[in-house]
Amino acid sequence: MNRRTFLRTALSGCAAVAAPQFSLAKTTDGFLELTAAKGQVRLYGANGGQSDLWLYNGRLPGPEIRVKRGERVRVRFKNELDEPSSVHWHGIRIDNSMDGVAGMTQPPVQPGEVFDYEFLTPDAGTYWYHAHNMSWNQVPRGLSGPLIIEDDETLFSQDTDITLVLSDWRLNENGILDTASFGARHDFSHAGRLGNCLTINGTSLPDIPLKKGHWHRVRLINSSASRILDLAPERFGAKLIGLDGQTFNAPRDMPGTVQLAPAQRMDLVLRPEATGTIPFEMMTGRPFTFANFQVKDAESEGPSLRLPPVNTLPEPDLQGALEMPLLMEGGAMGGMRSLLRDRTEDELRQMMQDGLFWTFNGTPGMQDAPMFSAKRGETVVLESRNDTSFAHAMHVHGHHFRLLERNGEPLEHQDWRDTFTTDPGETVKIAFVADNPGKWLIHCHMLGHAASGMMTWFEVS
Ligand code: C2O
Ligand code: CU
Q1: Which H, E and C letters describe the chain, residue by residue?
Q2: Which tens digits make up the pLDDT trace of 330-340?
């Protein structure tokens, strides 16, 4: 299944995109309840079958958790699945003990057990949460949801602040989730688990209502296991105002396509001038429509555009930074051969038998020792080199980094990000201040890649 083989949805009337939920049922002690359990959803339109999914609070995506910047988030996670789980708050500069990495920052939450997450949110913006135990299995079964940290001031009304979670699903010939292929070695060693159906907020080909003459903020979250979405915001008149939760000083015109890789977020603003239908497409060589904006007349003109203030993040100091290489090797299509440099044929065969296909700096998967240790406050410059035949979406936990260079060329906007993409043969340089003590993961967010070797960690002391 390649980028072009999406199923066309045969829908007569399209469903309207589900309105985000603004609060969770609070218990008396101020905790939001988030329960993971099995459930069913029709992914492929009203006529498709019910897919067996794993859901938070019975919803797809999980309920939108919305709090103000600086507020204390309290979530009581209850695991009603048959296997251990945990919740990771992706992109939040969080206290290490609340990062949700099962087996590293907390014990896995066993079936029937409860774990209380409690943390402060330093930055406003668009984030998300997802399962972080056997993520390759739990996330593409439905365990993710949006986490929106609001600015101090409310700049967009509820109906002009729109969260869209984009997810890629692999459906079988009956139009239901293909569960037989979870964990397939072929997916892990190639481009990851790719699907053939896209949903937005759990619905395929939804209508998204917009108000004529009003500015909208559209928050896109890619919760897919492996699918990189090439979007073309300019084709529907949108400008970019932020990436991975961090907003810019000014809106940016984005001619051509902009990648939204797994785990990445993109904040857009748009103000439709006329009523009617605007297709929302992904580019797969030719445009593929996966939703429609429906612009309705509004009684009054909306307020003028005001952008949220930018977050203040610690600025990397490149002088005397800790410089770390991150060599990515392995995978199918010729990548495994380079691994023979550090091991014998037999060792390589054993590694593959153990389900490991990828290495960072020659080593597959998590080790007892960190890839590096940084002193608190030290700047880390990570230079990654993709010596594989596949693209990767690399995520650093607990920190936002500046994207400095691609293939030795300084980038025009050295954006703050928490997940960067790298194409085969590329070198990408990032920098961040390691200012948050604890153990933090660095991994590919193509979740099958992470499970088969592309996962390491660093320590901040
Ligand atoms: Cu979005 Cu290690 O996670
Ligand atoms: Cu990868």
Answers
A1: CCCCCCCCCCCCCCCECCCCCCCCCECCCCCEEEEEEEEEEECCCCCCCEEEEEEECCECCCCCEEEECCCEEEEEEEECCCCCECEEEECCCCCHHHCCCECCCECCECCCCEEEEEEECCCCEEEEEEECCCHHHHHHHCCEEEEEEECCCCCCCHHHEEEEEEEEECECCCCCECCCCCCCHHHHHCCCCCCCEEEECCECCCEEEEECCCCEEEEEEECCCCCCEEECHHHHCCEEEEECCEEEEEEECCCCCEEECCCCEEEEEECCCCCEEEEEEEECCCEEEEEEEEEECCCCCCCCCCCCCCCCCCCCCCCCCEEEEEEEEECCCCHHHHHHHCCCHHHHHHHHHCCCCEEECCECCCCCCCCEEECCCEEEEEEEEECCCCCEEEEECCCCEEEEEECCEECCCCCEECEEEECCCCEEEEEEEECCCEEEEEEECCHHHHHCCCEEEEEEC
A2: 999 999 999 99
